[in-house]
Amino acid sequence: MEIGSLQLIALLITGVGVGFASGLLGVGGCFIMVPVQFWALTSIGIDSTIALRIAFGTNLAVVLPTAISGAIGHHRKKAVLWKAGIVLGLSGLVGAFLGGIFAAHLPGNLLKIGFGLAILAGAIRMLTAKPPKIEKDLVENNLVYILWGFPLGILSGIIGIGGGVLMIPVMVLALRFKMHQAVGTSTALMIFAAIGGTLSYVFNGLAVSGLPPYSVGYVNLWQWILLAGTSVPMAQVGARAAHKLPAKQLKNLFIAVMIYMGLKMTGVFAWLHLPL
Q: pTM for the full model?
């Protein structure tokens, strides 16, 4: 059950794309990583249910150093609101740990479809809503941050993502962040959500049989090295690119990613027999 050369190359290329997307858009890159990881594992004979959970758990473990790298890059551009990021992140950490526990027991297909529909709804909302133009309208309330961070952290842990794709629409539309602030702060809060989710996937997978070599619970260290080793430096490149794009273009790019991810999660591409 060793990973072959084809899978190795695919994971390395994926890591590059994930790192750039993380720094550019403030997302963990699960829409890139999870399908590739799932294919790499099932192609060497790993049970599909176990493979999906490993993909989720390892994805969160990759998000952690990638998000740290991206947050440093955005901090240099003064685009990280650390108070908001830490409060949202800590409440999201607790939620993500619980989400990882739920994921170990709930049907994977049902969770994926429900999550995909939520992403599509968020994309439509961002596409049609008019963002606030007055900076003083920025919401700065720790209780509000906790009430948003905890449930979104649960969803993050269930589906194995860093949470940026969920949190950025909330920060822009509900908390009134500017787009660049939302992207930068998202990388900071993903650090905490990734910690909670990773620990949960490790804990819940320790007694599971049929795991591939070099696995600690539902986190595969071999995949983690390949993905994190390329994604961390590329997150810096993505962060620099983000601040060269106008806010409107950055927002539209993020919406496009959300639509793709939602369609992917709901199985629309598979139903249409599209290799996407």
A: 0.75
- The beta-carbon contacts of 43-46 under 8 Å, at least 24 apart in sequence, are 43/4, 43/7, 44/1, 44/2, 44/3, 44/4, 44/7, 44/212, 45/1, 46/1, 46/210, 46/211, 46/212
142-66-246-250 Cα dihedral, nearest 10 degrees: -80
| Residue 275 counted as domain residue | no
The pLDDT tens digits for 3-32 are 667 888 888 888 888 788 777 776 666 667
Q: Among 202, 148, 210, which Cα is nearest to 177's?
A: 148
Residue 258 lies in a domain: no
**Is the distance from CB of 220 to CB of 58 less than 8 angstroms?**
yes
3-state secondary structure of 216: strand
Is residue 273 domain-resident? no
